[in-house]
Amino acid sequence: MTSTIERADAHPEAPVPVRKSGGFTAAAANYIEDRTSISGVVKEFGRKIFPDHWSFMLGEVALYSFIVIILTGSFLTFFFQASMVETVYDGSFVPLKGVEMSSAMESTLHISFDLRGGLLIRQIHHWAALLFIAAIGLHMLRVFFTGAFRKPRELNWVIGFLLFVLAMAEGFTGYSLPDDLLSGNGLRIIDGLIKGLPFVGTWISFLLFGGEFPGTDIVGRFYTLHILLLPALVVAFIALHLVFVVVHKHTQFAGAGRTEKNVIGYPILPVYAAKAGGFFFLVFGVIALMAAFFTINPIWNYGPYDPSPVSAGTQPDWYIGFADGALRLIPPGWEFVWLDHTWSFNIIVPVVALLALLGAVAVYPFVEGWVTGDKREHHILDRPRNAPTRTAIGAAGVTFYAALWAAASSDIMATHFQLSIEGVIHVVQAWAVLGPFLAYFITKRVCIGLMKKDHEILLHGYESGRIVRLPGGEYIEVHEPVDEYERWKLLDYEVYQPIMLRPNAEGKITAGMRLRARMSNWFFEDRIAPPTREQLEAGHGHETHGEIEKGPGLV
Amino acid sequence: MARKSRKANRRHPLATVVLIAIGLVVTGGGYALLSSTTTATADTNASSQETIDEGKKLFAANCATCHGMSLEGTDDGPSLIGVGAAAVNFQVGTGRMPMAMQGPQAMQKPPQFTDEQTAAMAAYVASISPGPAIPDEKYLQADGDATNGGELFRINCAMCHNVAGAGGALTEGKFAPELKGVLPTHIFEAMLTGPQNMPVFNDDNLTPEDKRDIITYLKYIENNPSPGGFELGSLGPVAEGLFVWIFGLGAVIALMVWLTAKSN
């Protein structure tokens, strides 16, 4: 199979005359074509090119998990009762027989124990949800580290970010629906979080729960969000996201023949569509296998929600873990009374920190665009090493997130590694504060080291490991030159210079300009330019080494 | 089917019944064996002087360094006056005593004494000063009300031991252990004597019938594994999250790499 090049300036070809013979398929196709004129769309869309790299499929995994979620979720709505009316359980799970619980819990138990296939569908739904958000997360990391969010795709990054937040909201509302002990504990934490906000907290909590926690409204309200509002938003944003992908065309890694003006890969029809269609079933299969063999959210163990008991090891699903972890990391005593109000900084600080983290993710493309001052379109992806500062920022962010995440499982780490929980928390606190800096510096150094290595390879070729003794008795290692394809990959990247601080039209230097110059300097002071043509030609045989080029200090 | 010869049938219709019967006899027999040993311990509650003397010797040799020659306690171990036979049976029967090393909490080891020796020491400690006795067999059959037991467990025990009895962390390196595989006697005695950081649930708190119900519940969830499949340690969302990242996403990524691999 050869790959195809899609040109930005390609014109759709003239429609092929429709043949009037060819049996049922052709007849059906004609019938539909005559009434919808859809062939133009199919053809245009079918000729879209999708480059081949495994990491480009992460978004698809998210999409397919979402389809699985919609399918199984619809099934669950047929049987789930979103009501907190008290009933007495009389199903087949013995240890809950005769227990008073809400209809929500009762119907979930009914789905799990007395409905044919119900438990499997429930487990598929939940595993698919976990996979959905994990795939989104990994997809975002891929897009971040390859710089795929740069112009013209900044808005699509924001849409993707909104999808991530919506997915978390979907997950959390779903987790709360069965009204079991675990979900009730989770809601209680959210309630505490809300109530900890100064002035407005109590009001918002009462508004949300329709009175004092837990009330009898919350399941019904979350249900509306979970099956109506949030999915509608998710579908709308997914559609928009995909439209943008088609409009912008897909990005690609640098390689022979690949330019900012073309996309090299397979056309969607037939190869890519076949692969993608098959891939949907593979993803579905993986989820179904997990659901068939591994219990998820065994609500029958948790029992119905009752505000008094709390189980050891109560945790949210993984995607809310970072919020739970942030709460756990705050040292005790950050609460005081001032102006007749209790100021719960143990809650305000983590809430603000989390919002700041999410906000930083959302606006990053704009910040980077502003700092680089780069207004051009980018369709060729960066190798992470070639954008050391961005990669280092990303690594710092991941490290911070991972620390919050680890904190959410501090008790499990304590019991399983026989540590004291206080010790675990202290270590994670240090990790959350120092880890990001460490990750930043290490990553940046590693990136620059790798760039140096690439530079060497371009100039002198690979170390072949073959040692040759020269007639004079000298030993040298033979270097193999890089081939053309490899050279494209190594050479095709850009180097930015820090912005020079120049007075604007009015002859002034504003504070914003200063900040920008300083940030630009921070971004680009350490860089390694790809070797020039002259260097490359001269390089073979000479002993010039790639050096870190230090930008002139600014400001 | 019916026309086929008898021999061709892979299983006689009665085979299932016979299998079940054999299964019942084997488990029942095993159970009888097991409970007969515990009955033996229970009997030593009102034990002969001979057993007490035997217990005294064992105690002096293995326990007195820490608990004192006459149970008065030392710097290395608390006084055992009034702890009763139940505490000794629990501590020695679960392998916590004799304690091996100082730590946040006396760790479980394989029990070092036979049931007879344990019973003898229990009898000896009980003979010095009375305390909670080894529980009566009739509370240990796991035949009570699992529903009541489940509710009591969630209210009284789950905050330390986790709803599914999977265990949980306490402060300063102490922890509430997993409850799978603990003998009914030991569950009862743990509630009765409150080992170390566990509170005492005396008979006014939880009646012996309540304790029986809790045992019933714990045994029910132990003997009826999750209908949803493997339980991932009953650890809840953390285990589920790790699983989906490592195995779920891992499998999917392997598939992606495979799908996009260059075919040559």
Automatic annotation (TrEMBL), chain A:
InterPro entries: Cyt_b/b6_N (IPR005797), Cytb/b6-like_sf (IPR027387), Di-haem_cyt_TM (IPR016174). The keyword Transmembrane helix applies. It catalyses: a quinol + 2 Fe(III)-[cytochrome c](out) = a quinone + 2 Fe(II)-[cytochrome c](out) + 2 H(+)(out). Keywords: Membrane, Transmembrane, Transmembrane helix. It is an enzyme of class 7 (translocase). Coiled coil: none annotated. The chain crosses the membrane at residues 61-80, 124-145, 157-177, 222-247, 268-296, 343-367, 387-408, 423-443. It comes from the Bacteria. Its cofactor is heme. Residues 28-254 form the Cytochrome b/b6 N-terminal region profile domain. SUPFAM superfamilies: Transmembrane di-heme cytochromes. Its EC number is 7.1.1.8. Residues 536-555 are annotated as: Disordered. This is Cytochrome bc1 complex cytochrome b subunit.
TrEMBL record, chain B:
Pfam families: Cytochrom_C (PF00034), Cytochrome_CBB3 (PF13442). Residues 50-129, 144-222 form the Cytochrome c domain. Its main location: membrane. It catalyses: a quinol + 2 Fe(III)-[cytochrome c](out) = a quinone + 2 Fe(II)-[cytochrome c](out) + 2 H(+)(out). It is a multi-pass membrane protein. Keywords: Cell membrane, Electron transport, Heme, Iron, Membrane, Metal-binding, Repeat, Respiratory chain, Translocase, Transmembrane, Transmembrane helix, Transport. It is found in: Cell membrane. The chain crosses the membrane at residues 242-261. Its EC number is 7.1.1.8. PROSITE patterns: CYTC (PS51007). SUPFAM superfamilies: Cytochrome c. The cytochrome bc1 complex is composed of a cytochrome b (QcrB), the Rieske iron-sulfur protein (QcrA) and a diheme cytochrome c (QcrC) subunit. This is Cytochrome bc1 complex cytochrome c subunit. It comes from Herbiconiux daphne.
